[in-house]
Amino acid sequence: MRQTIKHGELAKPLRRFNDGQQRLLAVRSGVGQADRAVRHEIEAVGHVSAPEQPLAHDQPEWMCRLCDPALQIRADPVTRRSSSASQRCIPRAEAALETCRAQRRAARSAFLALPARCWTYPRVYSKVCAAQIPGETTLSLQNLLLSYSLRKRLKRGAPPEQIDVPATRKMMAQFGHNARVPAGWRIEPSGGPALPGEWTRRAGAAQADVPTLLYLHGGGYCFCSPRTHRPLTLALAAYAGIPLFSLDYRLAPEHPHPAALDDAVAAYEALLGNGLSPANIVIAGDSAGGGLALATLLALLRKGRSLPAGALLFSPWTDLAATGETLRSNDRSDVMIQGASIARAARPYLGAVAATDPLVSPLYAPPAEMAALPPLYVQASDKEVLLDDSRRLVERVRAAGGSAELHVWHGVPHVWQIFHPFLPEARRALQDAAGFARRAVLR
């Protein structure tokens, strides 16, 4: 029988995972009469409530039943009651608990021994995501756990009227410091004030006119750094097989527009001054960094400079005026960002500039400038509030006669590529993006 999973049934096991216990509270899917009798014995001594529930029988024997509340039997000692009936059940209940402990250990070991490509759990999100993701019923277990964790941490209550910049920076600074450098690659700081940031290069590679990625990190123009985005940039450079420079541009509110844009334009011109040709550069960025990458292209175009070979954009923030329909329609499905917070988050960076200025909101660039942009490659999630920022950008570039690709991924968080070490969807997305980068410099 096909099992329907309710959102509330996910909370208890996923909360335990998120709290660091990392237990897969499950037993094998073959549940017979003897197993049901064991649960009734345990219920008799007040240990768990074990409602009967049909189980799917088409899973592998070892498959963990994460979402079956009937099998969430705790491993601590059985609570003893004074009634004689309960006392008679205690030996059998204790034996049943010991059996469950052994089965959980075996199931967890078998699960963790699988290759990452097998870590999918069909139908777990079938009811949760059906409204937002028609036809998509299989998500990786890592994505399920990550989405639950992000929602619990980042979407608590109404969005604040004002962002606590120091506290948010302190929280974000913890991200990426343990990123693993791929074998044969190294991170090295950039030399010179015109290029603040860090390089990701192959060990022993000489600086020359070779294909290069110029990366602009996200963070709402107020947070993050090249260090926080290392999980993404290290993987992107390794998958593409080309050097990557991650720019440490100035942040708002201390440095509102046009500080970040000036830094990005100066970094591009510094790369040209170091001997790189425009045809060998691909500019890239995520979220606010994606919008900054597009604004950099527009600023270079207005200065009459030669443009890079292409632009690689992950969930770009292209409309600081916050007019996208998905700010409302995807407000519940986005596990990280509340739609109502987008306009407020733009204020520190905008300063006195209008939110529809193309150099802060590239979505409003005139058609002639849209047509002159290099090829764009855009990835976005169908559940994020900024989906319309990507969708409308690609539509307007194409309508103007330019070249743009939009790849919408199902059921993943905003800028899921940064979770590359944990998330299978992030690895596949970065591999696809790296393929575009290689093609762009070979045109």
Oligomer: single chain
State the low-pLDDT regions, or none.
Answer: 1-9, 16-38, 41-86, 114-137
- Just give the CATH class of the largest domain: Alpha Beta
What is the third-level CATH name, the topology of the largest domain?
Rossmann fold
Terminal Cα span: 53 Å
In percent terms, what proportion of residues is strand? 5-15%
Summed over residues and divided by their number, the pLDDT gives a mean of: 79
Report the major sheet: 8 strands, mixed
Write down the overall geometry.
Answer: globular
Counting DSSP H or I runs of 4 or more residues, the number of helices is 13
Overall number of strands: 8
Computed over alpha carbons, the radius of gyration is 25 Å
The order of strands across the largest sheet is: 1-2-4-3-5-6-7-8
Question: What is the helix content?
Answer: 25-40%
Question: What is the topological layout?
Answer:
Blueprint lengths: L6 H12 L14 H12 L39 H29 L28 H14 L10 H8 L12 E5 L7 E6 L9 E5 L13 H11 L3 E4 L11 H15 L7 E6 L1 H16 L6 E5 L11 H4 L11 H10 L16 H6 L3 E6 L5 H13 L4 E6 L14 H19 L1
Parallel strand pairs: 3-4, 3-5, 5-6, 6-7, 7-8
Antiparallel strand pairs: 1-2, 2-4
Helix pairs in contact: 2-3, 6-13, 7-8
